[in-house]
């Protein structure tokens, strides 16, 4: 069936059928234009992004950082 024939046939459909067809066409076009990114690739790129050579802070250091932040914020 040619495009012209298809266009003629579309006008023979009910409004609800045309809307359903339109949604199907939009879905098919969106899936081709916006392929889903490969999350595994993104995860691999981000792995180690925030990694440092320093050891993580202990509880006392975290408490001191929080207190310092509160002092800066409210004083």
pLDDT < 50 runs, ≥5 residues: none
- Our Rg estimate from Cα atoms comes to 29 Å
Q: What structural category do the secondary elements indicate?
A: mainly alpha
Number of discrete helical segments:
4
List keywords for this structure.
4 helices; about 0% strand; about 80 residues; mainly alpha; elongated
What would you say this structure looks like, in words?
By secondary structure, this protein is mainly alpha-helical. The chain has a domain at 1-49. The protein is 68% helix and 0% strand. The protein has four helices and no strands. The protein has helices spanning 3-10, 15-33, 39-46, 59-74. The protein starts with a helix and ends with a helix. The mean pLDDT is 89.
Short account of what is shown:
The protein has 75 residues and is mostly helical. Helix content is 68%, strand content 0%. It is elongated and about 75 Å long.
Question: What's the SSE blueprint?
Answer:
Layout: H1 3-10, H2 15-33, H3 39-46, H4 59-74
